[in-house]
Amino acid sequence: MFGPFRMSNPLSSGLLWKIPWRLSRHQKYRQRKRLKSVDNVVAIVDNALVKQGLSTKAVERWKADMPTEGEMVAKDKYTIFDRKEKKYRKGIHKWRNGESVEWSGIVEDG
User: Fold this and answer.
1) 77 and 35 in contact (C-beta within 8 Å)?
2) Residues 67-95: pLDDT tens digits?
3) How far apart are CA 76 and CA 85, in angstroms?
4) pTM over 0.85, yes/no
5) Would you say 32 and 82 are in contact if contact means Cβ atoms under 8 Å apart?
6) Is the dihedral of CA 47, 50, 56, 61 positive or negative?
7) Angle at Cα 95 formed by Cα 93 and Cα 98, nearest 5°?
8) Are 66 and 39 in contact (CB under 8 A)?
């Protein structure tokens, strides 16, 4: 169709929303902030349990197995495992808005 109502390339067949191939510094900052908030929650829960003289296996195992944000390498901070990818890693910025985190069900269930 010609004229002002002709279809553009992205609308006819190409990509409409382009995903950059690397994270911006702002996206990295927000991700580091999220990871630090997780570390903060674990520390708060652990401190509250210690004050009451209690402890849980889950918190102790988390502290033993999971690195803090400062100890993590960049590959682990900004990518997730994806068996369909060529090198089995996918950038966190390639998640779709409606797509949930792939390990969220495992964490909630067990």
Assistant:
1) yes
2) 999 999 999 999 888 888 888 888 888 76
3) 16
4) no
5) no
6) positive
7) 135
8) no
